[in-house]
Design a protein that fits this description.
The complex is a heterodimer of chains A (157) and B (746). Chain A is an alpha+beta fold and 157 residues long. Chain A has helices at 4-14, 26-36, 43-52, 57-66, 86-90, 93-104, 146-155, and strands spanning 78-83, 117-122, 134-136, 139-141. In chain A, a hairpin with a 2-residue loop joins strand 3 and strand 4 (139-141). In chain A, helix 3 packs across helix 4. With 746 residues, chain B is an alpha/beta fold. Chain B is built from 25 helices and 31 strands. The longest helix of chain B is centred in the middle third of the chain and has 18 residues, at 420-437. The chains are: A alpha+beta (157), B alpha/beta (746). Chains A and B meet through helix 4 of A and strand 7 of B.
Chain lengths: 157, 746
C-alpha cells in the first residue's frame, strides 16, 4: 500500500506534467515508494504504483527493471555502490570489493547479517579522477584504501 | 498526399510521400528481411534486420522506419546492404538456440528462413549462450523465451490491437526479457494472434505443441463459424485430423487477426465424446446400429408420433450452415409443418430478425460515435469489438447502457448502469431527451418519463453524431421486453439518423434468416413448440442442457413418453443421449462443406477440411436421405453446391416492427441474467480443452451489487445458483449478472 504522504509526494510530480499524462511521473513515484519501503520494491508495490498512475503493471515493471537505482530484493540500511569501471578498476577496485565482501561476509548484491550494509557493483559514477570510489547514500567517497573503507564502515550506523 | 518517384534496386517506382521503404518494397515484390516490422503494428525499428542502402546516406538505413522521399535511390541487395544485414543476423544468432529440430516453429520460422540466406555457417561467438526462464502465460500459448529475439511484436500487439498491455520488455541490455508481469496468464480474447506475429518459436500454440510439422499438414481455406464475422482461416490437418487453425488475411473481414475462439475451438472436433455410430433407443436401452436401420427407425418414429404433420417440430443450432438450414426447413415444410426455429435462447423471438444491421464491418472503423446497449462486445463479438476499438482510438466517443460496467478495451465516455427491467424506461427517457433537444413532438407514451443527466448526455452524443452506430447485443435476448426495446432502438436510430448493428443473434444466424428458418403462418416458435403438445422433434446440433433459454422446459418436453426425438448430433454426450430416441452422428465444423453469411451479408462458402470421424455423415446428406424415406419430393441433390444455389434463391422474409406489448416488470424484484462465457457458446467450443482452461474459458461468476446481495441474503463466499459470487460496485441494482461456462440453471 502507498501511504497518504507518499501519494501527496507523487501528486506533486504528477502535477508537473500535462493533464492525462500521469504515467510520466512513474520514475519519481517508484523512487518515493521504494524509499518508503526501506529501499526496495516488490510486485505488490509495482501493482500499486500502476494502479495509482493508471498504467499497465508491466509498463511499470519495464521501468523498474531498466534502471539500476531500483532494487527488487531487500537491501541494507546503507548501500555501498562500488564503481568497477575502467579507472577505478585500474586503481584496484576489484581488490577493495573483495576486501569489503570478506569483511562484511557478503557477496555483491547481498545484505550483511546485521542488515546494515549491502554492496552493489555499479557502472561509472563520473568520479574517475578520484578512483577507486564508491557512493553511499548521497555521498561520494574517493581515493579509497582498505583503511579508509574500515573507517567509513565504522561510521555507518 | 503527393506522389513521388523513387528507385528501388534499379526499378522506378511511384509511391506516396511518407510511405516507408519497406511497404513500397513489399508492394513491388522486393524481399527485404525483417523481424520487428509488421504491416498492422506500429514501427519499432529495433531488430535492424531490414537495413538497406540509401544513396547519399553513409550508413545503411532501416527500411521500416525510413520514409521514402522523391528521387531516393535505394539498394536492398548491393554489398553494403548485404553486409549490414549479415552483420545484424550474426548478432541475432549469438543467443538464439539452435534447436530447430525440436522447435514447433521449425519450417515456418522467419528467423530460420532469413538465416538460410543471410546467416553464416559458423558462429564466431564462443561464450555461453543466454537462457531465459519461462513464466507460464496460460493454456493457449507455449513460451520458449530463450528463442526470443526481442522484436516486440507481441508487446505491440497487446498494446495496439488487443488493447490489454500484458507482455513487456523488462531488464536491459543483454538481460532484456519479454515477459508478462503477472503469472496468471494472458487475459486477451485475441491472444492467439501473438503466436502468428511471433517471427520465431518463442510463442507457439500450446495445444498444437509437438503434434505435427508444418510441411506435413494439409492447409484448406475455410471460414470460422463462432460469430457473426465469419473470419477467414486456414485449417491445417494431418492424417485426417485438424491440428491447427491460423488466420487468413482478408482486410474487409478479419484483417490478419482471428479470435481465440476461432483459433483454438478445433480441439473440440477430436473430443472423445464424438458420436461415431448411429444409435437407437429401444425400450430405454441404447443400441448401436447401421445407418439404414437408424434412419428407418427415425422416419417411422416421426410418422407414427406426428400423426398430424404440425405435431413435428424442427430445431437447429444457430451455428448450422446455410445448406443445413435450407434442407431442414425444406424437409419440415414439405412434411407439412411450420414449426421451425433456431432462436433457442431468446425470450421474445422476433428481436433478432426484426431489426437489421445497416452498417458494414469496415464502416464501423470510421464511425464517430457508438452507443452500446446490452452487450459485452469484447467477448461476444471480438472482431466487431476490434473495429469499434479502432474507431475509438481514432477519436470516436463510446457510450454504453449496460447492466454491468464491462471491461472494454477502449475508453467509454458515459456508462449508464441499467438493470434489464429498467432498460425500457431508460431508452424511453433517452428518446424523450432527443425529441426535446431537437424540438420535435413528444408522443403520449413518453409524457411521464423525465430524462436524467446521464440520459441527456447520451442523447447529446447521439444528436451530434454524424456517422454513429447503435450497437445492441446478446443481453437483450433474455429481456422480457426485448421486442419493445428493439422498437425503441429503431426509433432512436431513425430520429438521430444513426446506423444500427444488431449483434443479438450470433453464429450463422444470417443464413437461417436468409432461408426462413423461422415459423410462418400458424407455425410455432421454439418456445411454444416446447409448451405445446408436439409429438416429434428433429434436433440439429442442439444441446438441451446449454442451448435453450429454458433448458428444464426443453428436457422435460423431450423426455415425455409420447415425444419422439431425432437428434442429429456430432456428440454423444449425456444430455443428447438422455433426451433423444435416435442419434444420427453428423459431421462437425470443418468436416463438411457449407456456407456462412456474415454481418455484412457476405456469402462465404468453404469445403470440408477433413473427413468426419467414424460413420458420421454431413448433415445435408442425412437430411436428404431422411426426406427420401419420408417420400418427400425435390431432394435429388448430388452435391452441396446444388443445395447452396437453391438456398440462395430463397427470398428472405421481411419483418415489420410490430408494436410490442409492454410487459409490466416489477422494478424491485431481483432479476437474473444468465450469459454464457464466450467459450461455452457452441457444442465444439465447449469441448475444446485448452480454451476451457484459459482465463476466459474459466469465467464463472455471478456479479451483484452490495445492496442486491443484502436483499437476497448473500455474502462473499456464497454461491448463487451454483456460481461463485462477486460483490461489485459496477453492477445495476436488483440484478444478478451470471457470466459462466456452466449450463443454465435459471
Amino acid at each position: 500500500m502507498i501511504s497518504n504522504e507518499a501519494k501527496k509526494e507523487i501528486d506533486f510530480w504528477v502535477s508537473k506534467y500535462p493533464e492525462g499524462r500521469k504515467s510520466s511521473a512513474v520514475m519519481q513515484a517508484l523512487t518515493i515508494v521504494q524509499k518508503e519501503n526501506g529501499g526496495s520494491l516488490n510486485p505488490d508495490l509495482i501493482n500499486d504504483v500502476a494502479d495509482y498512475l493508471e498504467m499497465p503493471a508491466i509498463s511499470v515493471q519495464e521501468v523498474a527493471t531498466f534502471y539500476e537505482n531500483y532494487n527488487h530484493k531487500p537491501v541494507g540500511k546503507h548501500i555501498v555502490r562500488f564503481c568497477h569501471n575502467i579507472s577505478c578498476m585500474l586503481n584496484g577496485s576489484d581488490e577493495l570489493i573483495s576486501y569489503l565482501e570478506d569483511k562484511l561476509e557478503v557477496k555483491t548484491g547481498q545484505v550483511s547479517k546485521d542488515g546494515l550494509v549491502s554492496v552493489k557493483k555499479v557502472e561509472c559514477l563520473g568520479a574517475c579522477v578520484g578512483g577507486p570510489m564508491c557512493q553511499i547514500g548521497d555521498q561520494y567517497y574517493e581515493h579509497l584504501t582498505k583503511e579508509k573503507l574500515d573507517n567509513i564502515l565504522e561510521d555507518l550506523t | 498526399m503527393s506522389e513521388i518517384e523513387i528507385e528501388i534496386d534499379g526499378n522506378l517506382v511511384k509511391a506516396s510521400q511518407g510511405d516507408s521503404i519497406i511497404s513500397i518494397a513489399d508492394r513491388e515484390g522486393i524481399d527485404v528481411p525483417r523481424f520487428c516490422y509488421h504491416k498492422k503494428l506500429s514501427v519499432a525499428a529495433n531488430c535492424r534486420m531490414c537495413l538497406v542502402d540509401v544513396e547519399g546516406i553513409p550508413k545503411a538505413q532501416p527500411a521500416c522506419s525510413t520514409p521514402a522521399a522523391n528521387g531516393m535511390k535505394i539498394n536492398t541487395k548491393n554489398d553494403k546492404a548485404k553486409f549490414a544485414q549479415k552483420a545484424v543476423m550474426e548478432f541475432l544468432l549469438i543467443n538464439h538456440p539452435l534447436d530447430c529440430p525440436i522447435c514447433d516453429q521449425g519450417g515456418e520460422c522467419e528467423l530460420q528462413d532469413v538465416a538460410m540466406e543471410y546467416g553464416s555457417d559458423v558462429s564466431k561467438f564462443n561464450l555461453g549462450k543466454r537462457i531465459v526462464p519461462d513464466k507460464g502465460i496460460g493454456a493457449l500459448i507455449q513460451t520458449d523465451m530463450t528463442r526470443c529475439i526481442h522484436c516486440t511484436r507481441c508487446v505491440r500487439f497487446g498494446a495496439e490491437v488487443a488493447g490489454i498491455v500484458e507482455m513487456g520488455g523488462t531488464g536491459r541490455g543483454e538481460d532484456v526479457k519479454i515477459e508478462p508481469f503477472l503469472t496468471e496468464g494472458i487475459q486477451s480474447e485475441l491472444s492467439g494472434n501473438m503466436i502468428d506475429v511471433c517471427p520465431v518459436g518463442a510463442l507457439t500454440s500450446k495445444p498444437f505443441r509437438y503434434e505435427a510439422r508444418t510441411w506435413q499438414m494439409n492447409a484448406v481455406q475455410s471460414v470460422a463459424r463462432h460469430d457473426l464475422v465469419g473470419s477467414n482461416i486456414f485449417t491445417q490437418s494431418y492424417r485426417g485430423k485438424v491440428k491447427r487453425v491460423v488466420a487468413r488475411d482478408n482486410d474487409s473481414i478479419n484483417e490478419t487477426w482471428i479470435s481465440d475462439r476461432d483459433r483454438f475451438s478445433y480441439e473440440g472436433l477430436n473430443h472423445e465424446s464424438r458420436a461415431l455410430k448411429p444409435k437407437v433407443k429401444i425400450d430405454g436401452q441404447w443400441q448401436e446400429t447401421d445407418w439404414q436401420e437408424a434412419l428407418q427407425f427415425a422416419v417411422d418414429g416421426i410418422k407414427n408420433n406426428a400423426k398430424n404433420p404440425d405435431q413435428l417440430g424442427v430445431l437447429a443450432s444457430k451455428h448450422s450452415s446455410l445448406e443445413e438450414f435450407y434442407l431442414m426447413q425444406k424437409l419440415a415444410r414439405k412434411f407439412g409443418t411450420e414449426n421451425i426455429d433456431f432462436r433457442l435462447d431468446q425470450s421474445q423471438l422476433s428481436i433478432g430478425s426484426s431489426l437489421e444491421s445497416s452498417i458494414t464491418l469496415k464502416e464501423i472503423e470510421s464511425i464517430d460515435h457508438a452507443l452500446i446497449i446490452g452487450s459485452y462486445t469484447r467477448l461476444e463479438q471480438p472482431m466487431i469489438n476490434h473495429r469499434i476499438r479502432k474507431a475509438a482510438l481514432d477519436g470516436a466517443s463510446v457510450n454504453s447502457i449496460n447492466s454491468k460496467n464491462f471491461d472494454f478495451n477502449f475508453k467509454t465516455k458515459c456508462d449508464a448502469l441499467t438493470s434489464p427491467q429498467k432498460l425500457f424506461s431508460t431508452l424511453q427517457s433517452i428518446l424523450k431527451a432527443i425529441l426535446l433537444k431537437t424540438k420535435k413532438d413528444i408522443p403520449n407514451d413518453l409524457s411521464k418519463v423525465s430524462p436524467s443527466e446521464i440520459h441527456n448526455a447520451i442523447a447529446d452524443d447521439l444528436i451530434t453524431s454524424k456517422n454513429g452506430v447503435i450497437v445492441f447485443g446478446e443481453h437483450l435476448n433474455s429481456n422480457p421486453n426485448s421486442l419493445a426495446i428493439t422498437n425503441l432502438i429503431a426509433k432512436i436510430a431513425l430520429t438521430t439518423n444513426l446506423k444500427i448493428a444488431n449483434l443479438t443473434l450470433s453464429g450463422n444466424s444470417h443464413s437461417a434468416e436468409k432461408v426462413n428458418f423461422i415459423p410462418s403462418g400458424k407455425g410455432m416458435n421454439a418456445m411454444s413448440m416446447l409448451n405445446d403438445n408436439s409429438k416429434a422433434f428433429i434436433l440439429m446440433d442442439v444441446d438441451c442442457e446449454f442451448d435453450f433459454i429454458n433448458s428444464k422446459l426443453a428436457s422435460d418436453c423431450f423426455n415425455r413418453e409420447d415425444v419422439f426425438v431425432v437428434a442429429l448430433s456430432s456428440y454423444d454426450g449425456n444430455a443428447s443421449q438422455s433426451n433423444a430416441d435416435v442419434i444420427l452422428p453428423m459431421a462437425s465444423f470443418y468436416e463438411s462443406s457449407g456456407t456462412h453469411i456474415n454481418f455484412d451479408g457476405l456469402v462465404q462458402s468453404y469445403r470440408a477440411s477433413v473427413k468426419s470421424p467414424g460413420d458420421s455423415k454431413p448433415a445435408w446428406k442425412i437430411i436428404k436421405v431422411m426426406a427420401d424415406l419420408l417420400d418427400l419430393e425435390g431432394f435429388d441433390y448430388v452435391d452441396s453446391s446444388q443445395v447452396k444455389d437453391e438456398a440462395l434463391q430463397s427470398s428472405k422474409a421481411q419483418y415489420s416492427l410490430n408494436e410490442a406489448n409492454i410487459q409490466s416488470v416489477d422494478d424491485s424484484q431481483v432479476t437474473t441474467h444468465w450469459q454464457y462465457a464466450p467459450y461455452a457458446t457452441d457444442n465444439v467450443t465447449r469441448r475444446a480443452k485448452a480454451l476451457q482452461e484459459s482465463n476466459i474459458g474459466m469465467i464463472d461468476r455471478a456479479y451483484l451489487s452490495k445492496m442486491t446481495a443484502q436483499k437476497i441474503g448473500l455474502s462473499d463466499d456464497d454461491l448463487y445458483l451454483g456460481v461463485p459470487i462477486s460483490i461489485e460496485e459496477s453492477v445495476a441494482e436488483d440484478y444478478v449478472f451470471v457470466h459462466t461456462n456452466q449450463a443454465r440453471k435459471a
